[in-house]
């Protein structure tokens, strides 16, 4: 069986209308996601002052990249859009909250950084595996209709598990925007290394362990950038 095909992408793809629309979509979606996620944290902080996170995720894009489902060029464009969206959202939040610094993510007291790293790897693996099973797998069939719901459930479950320990980011953009605007960089590497490792493992295992391994002889799944 021919090996899985990877593609760097042609130079003209960078200015192709489809690429531009997809990149703009990633920017807007990540901006909305980070605004809502970080905004809810700021709301909790503000309310307790007087009393006492498309792909929308660089890790999901990386999982699709290692599985050969997206070209390197398009992945690069997505990453730029996602990070910019996160920064813009965090800036808007800082303005809208009269200068409150975005909280971002941090490892809780008593939780080691390596423990937090392992948790980010496991949680992001589960997230990207779910994305593959419901949104990327060409045999997904009717599962595609419940992809957003399934992804939302896995994110919510992961937050319940990992949130008290290290915030449950699973998304480098979600961690980067607030860190840059709020200038809170402590343990930031965890929220990059963990999600990328977890996403890469999920992409490789699902692509080669399930999709490619079960494909009929002499068939080959082409790149499917239109899915993104």
TrEMBL record:
InterPro entries: Aquaporin-like, Aquaporin_transptr, MIP, MIP_CS. It is a multi-pass membrane protein. It comes from the Eukaryota. It holds the Pfam family MIP. GO terms for molecular function: water channel activity. SUPFAM superfamilies: Aquaporin-like. Its main location: membrane. The keyword DNA-binding does not apply. The keyword Acyltransferase does not apply. The chain crosses the membrane at residues 27-46, 76-96, 116-135, 142-161, 189-211. One of its GO terms (cellular component) is vacuolar membrane. Keywords: Membrane, Repeat, Transmembrane, Transmembrane helix, Transport, Vacuole. It is found in: Vacuole membrane. Belongs to the MIP/aquaporin (TC 1.A.8) family. TIP (TC 1.A.8.10) subfamily. This is Aquaporin TIP3-2.
